[in-house]
Design brief:
about 100 residues; mainly beta; two-stranded antiparallel sheet
Length: about 100
């Protein structure tokens, strides 16, 4: 596992890479399936076990979305089942385990 990073461009990850995201209130595990497609778990209501989703990106205070980015200090947005948007609390730490195919 790599050390914690401040900014991660999810679009640069290969399928099979795993990202651990710690927010102020939860711990998410995100598996990259390719592009913005992910399998995510960590929310007790929406994804207690891994579910298919699309990673949106990081939201700033004004609600501007930086697509594909996961950044500490900002909220993460993902979409479950193409219709349920989920916004996390602020991201505290991001760790990535890269797929080494």
């Amino acid at each position: 596992m790599l050390p914690s990073v401040e900014l991660l461009d999810f679009n640069q990850l290969e399928a099979g890479s795993v990202v651990d995201v710690e927010t102020k209130s939860r711990h998410y595990q995100i598996e990259c399936l390719g592009g913005s497609s992910v399998r995510i778990s960590g929310h007790p209501t929406y994804c207690p076990s891994p579910v298919a989703a699309h990673l949106g990106g990081s939201l700033d205070r004004e609600g501007h979305l930086d697509e594909g980015l996961i950044e500490t200090g900002r909220r993460l947005m993902f979409l479950i089942g193409d219709r349920l948007p989920v916004m996390t609390s602020k991201v505290l730490h991001v760790h990535c385990t890269l797929n080494r195919n």
